[in-house]
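seq:
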Amino acid sequence: LPLRNMPLGTEIHNVEFQPGAGGQLARSAGTVIQLVAKEGKFVTLRLPSGEVRLVPNKCWGTVGQVGNVDATNLVIGKAGRKRWLGRRPEVRGSVMNPVDHPHGGGEGRAPIGRCQPYTPWGKPALGKLTRTSKKYSNSFIIRKRK
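struct:
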């Protein structure tokens, strides 16, 4: 159903960013978007992340919440069950050698040794903002997720 035909406060999922592009927003298990306002050629949506943004009113969405709401409560329980899902073991950078990871090396259980955590490729991790400040769609974001 096009977003312009939905009443305010409707809970929706699988929403398009651009008309005809296919659903891209709120497709994960248990997620839902709330239609907050309609003005001109745009509707205002509150996304699962808490971000509030404008989307063209010609875009389509599906009424209701995505199923399997309890997916977040699933306890994997053991490494083998994770392997059945195709996930390989996750090795911490601090147990590697310095040639393999920026956190590696040192005698015993050493701290990171740098001012902040880094990825295996030397880029800052945890908290570094990566969104381009000049991105064209910044004007459609009313409130950032943080």
